């Protein structure tokens, strides 16, 4: 039975032989995403990194859509390990399992519907080597659709590689990354614990938590693909408006990570950003499903967060599309 963790779960220290420890752990949490998993696996395997340097393991949250173990064995040919939960435990518990099963110094949680691009592990590893105090490293990424076609690229945080300046305040305003584009030192998870609280935006809270305690390294290279599709957790929550409720919860959680003199300013910026983001989600819902109630729900929650003339103009454009059935 899926559970929502109310506190960060404990991540146990690595107990294995330090002399045979791999540098990387690519942990792939999956649940009913068998159609995309082969692409994910091939994207990692194409890096051709030996087993003594990289652990690759699929952690299956009791999927029901396919024989995931067969897919892993067929594509991985023994190079990719497989672990299945006895019952569905939910995404947060599955992430916790992934991290606790990881052996590497650097952990990459790569969801079973996302992809990495050539050079990801080399570039991210170099960042950790250049900046040994960095708790995490992030890269730019592409948004792709269900068919794997590029939609657009994540914006640039910094033009050159290095440590991100004033990162705690910046990351606290909006979520800058995705799991696919983020690698974290295992010792950081051991120190701070795992993901908790909600199942939409839990990564944002983690990135803020890390930024509070550690520098974060960055490369402007586009080295990962984040897939947007109708069966994802995000898409399901877009139709009900639960994404806004979760975001408000995350904003509240983030306040505890900030100095008192920054909290009010950051919260105001967050609400403005996610109000405008809500209208873009409403537009996305309309184009992907023509779900009018879902569109209206997104718009309502957006106006609950913030109001300005630009928001009103963007909303009008979405309503015009609905009235004239423009898709």
TrEMBL record:
GO terms for molecular function: hexosyltransferase activity. Residues 25-168 form the Glycosyltransferase 2-like domain. SUPFAM superfamilies: Nucleotide-diphospho-sugar transferases (SSF53448). InterPro entries: Glyco_trans_2-like (IPR001173), Nucleotide-diphossugar_trans (IPR029044). The keyword Transferase applies. PANTHER family: GLYCOSYLTRANSFERASE (PTHR22916), UDP-GLCNAC:BETAGAL BETA-1,3-N-ACETYLGLUCOSAMINYLTRANSFERASE-LIKE PROTEIN 1 (PTHR22916:SF3). This is Glycosyltransferase. Keywords: Transferase. Transmembrane segments: none annotated. Pfam families: Glycos_transf_2. It comes from the Bacteria.
């Amino acid at each position: 039975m899926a559970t929502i963790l109310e506190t960060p779960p404990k991540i146990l220290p690595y107990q294995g032989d330090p002399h045979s420890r791999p540098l990387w752990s690519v942990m792939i949490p999956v649940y009913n995403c068998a159609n995309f998993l082969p692409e994910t696996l091939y994207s990692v395997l194409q890096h051709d990194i030996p087993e003594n340097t990289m652990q690759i393991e699929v952690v299956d949250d009791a999927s029901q859509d396919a024989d995931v173990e067969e897919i892993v064995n067929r594509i991985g040919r023994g190079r990719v390990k497989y672990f299945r939960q006895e019952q569905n435990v939910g995404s947060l518990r599955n992430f916790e399992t992934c991290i606790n099963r990881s052996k590497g110094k650097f952990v990459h949680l790569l969801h079973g519907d996302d992809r990495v691009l050539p050079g990801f592990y080399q570039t991210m590893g170099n960042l950790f080597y250049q900046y040994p105090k960095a708790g995490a490293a992030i890269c730019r990424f592409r948004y792709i659709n269900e068919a794997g076609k590029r939609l657009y690229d994540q914006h640039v945080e910094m033009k050159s590689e290095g440590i991100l300046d004033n990162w705690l305040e910046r990351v606290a305003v909006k979520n800058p990354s995705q799991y696919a584009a983020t690698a974290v030192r295992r010792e950081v998870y051991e120190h701070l614990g795992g993901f908790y609280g909600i199942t939409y935006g839990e990564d944002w809270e983690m990135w803020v938590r890390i930024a509070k305690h550690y520098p974060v390294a960055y490369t402007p290279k586009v080295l990962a693909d984040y897939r947007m599709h109708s069966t994802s957790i995000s898409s399901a929550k877009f139709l009900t408006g639960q994404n806004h409720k979760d975001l408000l919860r995350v904003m509240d959680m983030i306040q505890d990570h900030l100095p008192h003199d920054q909290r009010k300013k950051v919260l105001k910026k967050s609400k403005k950003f996610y109000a405008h983001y809500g209208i873009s989600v409403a537009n996305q819902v309309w184009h992907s499903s023509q779900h009018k109630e879902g569109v209206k729900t997104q718009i309502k929650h957006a106006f609950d967060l913030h109001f300005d003339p630009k928001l009103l103009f963007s909303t009008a454009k979405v309503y015009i599309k609905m009235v004239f059935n423009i898709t």
